[in-house]
Amino acid sequence: MKHIKIIDLLNNTKTLQEVTAKGWVRTFRNNQFIALNDGSTIHNIQCVVDFENTSDDILKRITTGAAICVKGTLVESQGAGQKVEIQVTSLEILGDSDAEKFPMQPKRHSLEFLRENAHLRVRTNVFGAIMRVRSVLSFAVHQYFQQKGFVYVNTPIITGSDAEGAGEMFQVTALPLDGSAPKNEDGSINYKEDFFGKQTNLTVSGQLEGETFAMALGQIYTFGPTFRAENSNTSRHLAEFWMIEPEVAFNDLADNMDLAEDFIKYVIKYAVDNCADDLKFLDERFAQEEKQKPQAERSEMTLLEKLNFVLENNFKRVSYTEAIDILKDSTPNKKKKFQYLIEEWGADLQSEHERFLVEKHFKCPVILFDYPAKIKAFYMRLNEDGKTVRAMDILFPGIGEIVGGSQREERYDVLVEKMKALGIDEEELWWYLDTRRFGSAVHSGFGLGFERLVLFVTGMTNIRDVIPFPRTPQNAEF
Amino acid sequence: MKHIKIIDLLNNTKTLQEVTAKGWVRTFRNNQFIALNDGSTIHNIQCVVDFENTSDDILKRITTGAAICVKGTLVESQGAGQKVEIQVTSLEILGDSDAEKFPMQPKRHSLEFLRENAHLRVRTNVFGAIMRVRSVLSFAVHQYFQQKGFVYVNTPIITGSDAEGAGEMFQVTALPLDGSAPKNEDGSINYKEDFFGKQTNLTVSGQLEGETFAMALGQIYTFGPTFRAENSNTSRHLAEFWMIEPEVAFNDLADNMDLAEDFIKYVIKYAVDNCADDLKFLDERFAQEEKQKPQAERSEMTLLEKLNFVLENNFKRVSYTEAIDILKDSTPNKKKKFQYLIEEWGADLQSEHERFLVEKHFKCPVILFDYPAKIKAFYMRLNEDGKTVRAMDILFPGIGEIVGGSQREERYDVLVEKMKALGIDEEELWWYLDTRRFGSAVHSGFGLGFERLVLFVTGMTNIRDVIPFPRTPQNAEF
């Protein structure tokens, strides 16, 4: 008899049928009650063992982590906490789990310990929930864009272009590192002998390639891994993370903000609607975590309230210039509590300033726009004032920047001038410039760091806990 | 007035309304008829210009590739080939395209030329169609698995594990290549000083990490980029390609074959149902290409017939042993037409043998299973005969291997013995072995090379033409 997934058993109302279930033992109480989980849901099914008619040898092997197959009758449960349970008629141990050695004991482990056991942590309630929510969120991303007619584009991971300047890059090579790589006469590495015939790196963004596709297909999005070789050992940075980058021909900055806000609300709504059980569990976990904090630092809202707050409120749109005025006049600035004091227009905003705006001042998601050209990337559309660009960042409470985007500079001459001023090689970006040479048009796009979204939706606080196998400085285990 | 996408204009039955459209000029005939495309569909909308009341200066700038905005009345078309057209009342040039310089002329270009212009080729009918079909196929992949409750897992791209042995790997490093990288006393590179504190590579497969998640979440799938540093300059290989790898706890090899066949049929059906216009175009293109071939080499079926054939027929399941018998007795083997003659059981099958089985003998997709252990990977489940493993490959006409999978060796002792025999470091794969130490169970999975699927569905013949920016030896442009 084919086994039935536990999520389907729990939703089953046809009791008194013979069923088979397979899964892993979470707990075994009183030599009688197995809590069995197969990953299909956060809920376990209770399997009641007839211990008087089960050999001691088998009973001893029903340990936390063991894989088992049970056959029995699905009956209404007499106990609290579940509607149905399985009265076991036969039980087979598929794979033992030595109770002394299995690292995932039925107790609370530190997140640090669990990170070191990333291959097993997903067998816990919290990581099972996070990974299911992450999966549903990623599907929501695809569904949102596909329903709107966007074309999914896989921009290259290995890139010969290093001009974007979004961050430090990892080098990709098939050459040896020991000094024996072929060299040019001037002593530099002869990359013509490398696999791709040139120096290559891991991409920091698919935007530039994405733009070329938007200027043909109209609406496109990427969703793939991106990389930063920055030595940032923080709870907000990963060396390898997944990014979503839509790009739309004929969209201006206002359209871009509308798209980003609508998109974020859609995917959060989708998770709220489709991950109710997991989010309920994570909501309770969030509440427990908050209780550990001093009163003053506790969140004013529960996790689910935070999610609904985002869904129900417009993101506050504030120009950089307004934001600077607010920050200059703010108490932490006047009292010199900011590490970086805001003194004049043009200052780059630090995390502390973004958090003040979002968490203290506006108390809602904020879209900052029209930044000084000097602190933003070369490809952003220069405003008529000649000093600001049509950039926008979306800031979220507790997360900081979750989206960075802009209307792109569509004017060939202005773009080339900007590249020259910044020393960006025109020859290398010949293909990017072609989009402005042939049929250029207003277009806009943004990048959303997927893990920051998962962080927000799950209420976790360290980005290493929302990706299966985090890559950070000094860590590429598994 | 907000512009309307061309796909929506063409499907509109409410004529005599004022509309705005934006897009790129494909052709401009008789100073009057613009074929306008915005990438939302393969079809252009005809825009009829009132040339007597339009300045020569504007008319001259309506060139192939130019971006324009037209306003006008949507009317029933008098001409053949379209139901509606736009009677233009005003026309704005958004971005010029110098007719002398724009590489994508309205004529047939060689695929080789188009590859060198991968940033512009997507503005042609054929590449627009391919990229839309690719996008829809990728969504079908996610929808199939999500509907069945699979969890999408992003396995790591940068990996510290090189034990899978699926192919040559690219190295990822932040160290210099010129010989100045820090060294150990024995002269070897001191990778402790590299970004991750160890030697790292680009993944060749997410399977091993995926297995650890399947043993917790039950049903998982990956869909991400994978890499091979193999110097294969063929029409079937890429250095960077996208792979789909489902892994299911409690599935045996028969379940695995069922899943793979059902999955492939679902995604092809989804494309047939949702890409009708693009596939009709590609079907016509395929027919034209076939006409160029000598009669004997032409496909017996049109592209759409090939797709429907896969949907309507069971994949033929044949054991390796049966396949060897068929090949040994085959005419090309007897007449020594095979480059590698099949002499005895145990031989590895080459592309020529796979093609013979699929295209000449069975004339349908074939699933070969139960391969000799010696020619397959260490993690495959050894059969009771002690010499074959529960492997399966799916072979497609014109494509060759599209899926490779297996039931995995779930027995700790057998797996360790196999690793020892092959010199695979147990210490390095401690986490993989943990899945067999704690709650091991029968499980199976497979890998499907996404580009080979796109190749089959679009009827293209070179894998470089079904990925936006192909990476191959000596080529990482863009």
TrEMBL record, chains A, B:
GO annotation, cellular component aspect: cytoplasm
Reaction catalysis annotation: tRNA(Asn) + L-asparagine + ATP = L-asparaginyl-tRNA(Asn) + AMP + diphosphate + H(+)
Subunit structure as annotated in this protein's UniProt entry: Homodimer.
Record-level Gene Ontology MF annotations: asparagine-tRNA ligase activity; ATP binding; nucleic acid binding
Family annotation (InterPro entries): Aa-tRNA-synt_II (IPR004364), aa-tRNA-synth_II (IPR006195), aa-tRNA-synth_II/BPL/LPL (IPR045864), Asn-tRNA-ligase (IPR004522), Asp/Asn-tRNA-synth_IIb (IPR002312), NA-bd_OB-fold (IPR012340), NA-bd_OB_tRNA (IPR004365)
Positions in coiled-coil regions: 272-299
SUPFAM superfamilies: Class II aaRS and biotin synthetases (SSF55681), Nucleic acid-binding proteins (SSF50249)
Chief location of this protein within or outside the cell: cytoplasm
Protein family (similarity comment): Belongs to the class-II aminoacyl-tRNA synthetase family.
NCBIfam families: asnS, PRK03932.1
Name assigned to this protein: Asparagine--tRNA ligase
Gene name in the database record: asnS
Enzyme Commission number(s) of this protein: 6.1.1.22
Pfam families to which the protein is assigned, alphabetical: tRNA-synt_2 (PF00152), tRNA_anti-codon (PF01336)
